[in-house]
Write a structure and sequence with these properties.
The chain is of the alpha/beta class. It is built from 14 helices and 13 strands. It has 2 domains: 175 residues, 3-Layer(aba) Sandwich (Rossmann fold); 176 residues, 3-Layer(aba) Sandwich (Rossmann fold), CATH 3.40.50.2000.
Length: 361
C-alpha cells in the first residue's frame, strides 16, 4: 500500500487545496493511505477530520512581524516540531511528502527530504513564501498556479497545474435556483457576494456595513460572510435592513457562488482560483499585510488581464461600495470580466497534482 503525508494549513486557503489533492489521490487509487500533518490549534485540526482524514498536529507557530514575547518561544517550538515530524515519518513511513504551505509544512518537508523521502511543494501564490523557497532546493517537484515562477524556483522542477479547489464549485452555475432558496434570497434582485477569507476581513466588513443601505436602496441584495470576529456586529447591522443575509462562515460556497452576480473578495490564492472557475465578475481587495504582499501580486495577475477590478485596502472605505454599485449596474463590464477570468481557470489542478504525486511514488 502506498502512503502519502500532506502537510500544511493555517487558513482555508491552504486546507481546502490539501483536501482536494487527497480526494484526487483517493479517486485515482483507493488503496493509498493518507495522513495529514498540521499545526496544533489551527483550522486544519478541525476541518481535516470533517473531510474524513486523520491528522497529527505539530507545536509549530509563525514568527510575528512585530516585537513579541511569543517570538522568544519560536526556536523551541521549531525544534520540538522537527523532532515530532521525524517521529511521525518513522512511524508512518510515507512514500511521498506533500507541502501545501502553512506552518507545519516547513518542519515536515525539511525532515522528509533529509530522510530521503521525495517531496512535492504546492505553491498557491504568485509570490513564493520564504519557507517554500528554502524547501525548493531539496524538492523533487514544485506545482504552481501562476506563470513566471522561475523567479523563485528551479525551472526544471516547476509544473504549472493551477490551484486545487473544492470539487463542488465546479458545477456551481447549475445550482442557482437551489441557492436562492437555501439563503432565502430574492431571485429578482442581483446579488453581491462578500467574502473576506475564512477568518473575515475587517476593512471589507466595515466598508460593506457602512454601505449596506446604499446597496439595498439601489435594488440589490447582499450575501455577506463576515468571519467570526465581526459576526455579532454584522448581525446587529442587518437587523433593520431587508435583503441582506450575514453569516460568520459560509460552508456552501458552491451555492454562494451560484447565487452571486458580483463578488467582493480578498485575493488569497484559493479565492482567486475559485473565482476563475466560477467565472464571476470580481472586485479584489488584497490584504496588504500578507507575507511579501502576495495578495496584491495575486490580484494584479488578474487585473493585468482585465479579468478583475482592484480596490486597495486603504481606499476601501471610500471606494469599495461605489465600485460595487457601478459594476452591478454595468452588465457589459460584468460580461467582459467574466469571460476574461474564465480563461485563467484550471479545473483539473487537483487531478494533475495527484498524478505528479503518484509519479514520485
Amino acid at each position: 500500500m502506498k502512503k502519502v503525508i500532506i502537510s500544511g494549513g493555517g487558513t482555508g486557503g491552504h486546507i481546502y487545496p490539501a483536501i482536494a489533492i487527497a480526494n484526487a489521490l483517493k479517486e485515482a487509487d483507493a488503496s493509498i493511505e493518507i495522513l495529514f500533518v498540521g499545526a496544533l490549534g489551527k483550522m486544519e485540526m478541525e476541518k481535516v477530520p470533517k473531510a474524513g482524514y486523520n491528522i497529527i498536529g505539530l507545536p509549530i507557530t509563525g514568527i510575528k512581524r512585530e516585537l513579541s514575547v511569543d517570538n522568544l518561544s519560536f526556536p523551541l517550538k521549531l525544534v520540538r516540531s522537527l523532532l515530532k515530524a521525524r517521529s511521525i515519518i518513522k512511524d508512518f513511513k510515507p512514500d511521498v511528502a506533500v507541502g501545501v504551505g502553512g506552518f507545519a509544512s516547513g518542519p515536515l518537508l525539511m525532515i522528509a527530504s533529509l530522510m530521503g523521502i521525495p517531496t512535492l511543494i504546492q505553491e498557491q501564490n504568485s509570490y513564493a513564501g520564504i519557507t517554500n523557497k528554502l524547501l525548493a532546493k531539496r524538492a523533487k517537484a514544485i506545482c504552481v498556479a501562476y506563470p513566471n515562477m522561475e523567479r523563485f524556483f528551479p525551472k526544471n522542477k516547476i509544473i504549472v497545474t493551477g490551484n486545487p479547489v473544492r470539487s463542488d464549485i465546479l458545477d456551481a452555475a447549475s445550482k442557482r435556483q437551489v441557492a436562492y432558496e437555501h439563503f432565502g434570497l430574492n431571485p429578482n434582485r442581483k446579488t453581491l457576494l462578500v467574502i473576506g477569507g475564512s477568518l473575515g476581513a475587517k476593512t471589507i466588513n466595515e466598508s460593506i456595513e457602512a454601505g449596506l443601505k446604499m446597496l439595498t436602496d439601489a435594488g440589490y441584495q447582499v450575501l455577506w460572510q463576515t468571519g467570526k470576529p465581526y459576526a455579532e456586529r454584522a448581525q446587529d447591522a442587518v437587523k433593520k435592513i431587508a435583503n441582506v443575509v450575514a453569516s460568520d462562515f459560509i460552508y456552501e460556497m458552491d451555492l454562494a457562488y451560484a447565487v452571486s452576480d458580483v463578488v467582493v473578495s480578498r485575493a488569497g490564492a484559493l479565492s482567486v482560483s475559485e473565482l476563475c472557475l466560477v467565472a464571476k465578475p470580481a472586485i479584489l481587495v488584497p490584504f496588504p499585510f500578507a507575507s511579501e504582499d502576495h495578495q496584491t501580486q495575486n490580484a494584479m495577475s488578474l487585473v493585468e488581464q482585465n479579468a478583475a477590478l482592484l480596490v486597495k485596502d486603504k481606499d476601501a472605505k471610500e471606494e469599495l461600495v461605489q465600485t460595487a454599485l457601478r459594476l452591478l449596474q454595468d452588465a457589459d463590464k460584468q460580461r467582459e470580466l467574466s469571460q476574461n477570468i474564465q480563461k485563467l481557470a484550471k479545473p483539473n489542478a487537483a487531478k494533475e497534482i495527484a498524478e505528479v504525486v503518484r509519479g514520485l511514488v
